Amino acid sequence: KKSYPITFSSDEPIKRQTWSGWYNEILGHDKGEVRTARLENGLTILVNHDPNQRAGRLESWAIDGGRGTGEIRFGTTDFARSINQEVDDETLQGVSVGYQVHEYQRVADACPEDDEDEDYMGTYRAVDWEPYEASLTPIEADIHSGVGRTAAPDPKIPTYPVRFLA
Predict the structure, then answer these.
(1) 12-55: per-residue pLDDT in tens?
(2) Smallest Cα–Cα separation from 45: which of 133, 139, 147?
(3) Which residues are 120's β-sheet partners?
(4) pLDDT at 110
(5) What Cα–Cα distance (Å) separates residue 37 from each residue in 3, 41, 65, 94, 150?
(6) Is the pLDDT of residue 152 over 60?
(7) N or C: which end of the chain has fewer CB within 10 A?
(8) 148: Cα separation from own chain's centroid
(9) Whole-angstrom Cα distance, residue 78 to residue 84?
């Protein structure tokens, strides 16, 4: 079975929106910041974070260099095969991680100009978080994540993509 390299997370600051304002969130990737039990068991690969749209499994993984990477293998259902075809056709390349944060720490602002916005609540680093699933999606929050995106981020790409709360 063919496998595909992916990046499912990175430590790039992502803008998050809440009812009371917005903040920059950084998913920590240092030793001890990511709970790996679910990774060790093989994360399910979904489509658009929908548990009824299973496409495959994450077979191997690594947390290194500020990124979560791995290899995915597609399932054998008709749905999984159709998603695999979209990946092969390069019409579905985005990857998003579904996760729970257990602890944040306030850190230096990712962008000092953000302080000028009265709705800005700060920059927070998830120092204890747990991936639950990874999803193939046409609109990924983190532009450094995706199928085949395992190299270091391009410094010419902006580092403030938008991620909204579900």
Answers:
(1) 999 999 999 999 999 999 999 999 999 999 999 999 999 999 99
(2) 133
(3) 22
(4) 86
(5) 21, 6, 20, 24, 22
(6) no
(7) C
(8) 14
(9) 10
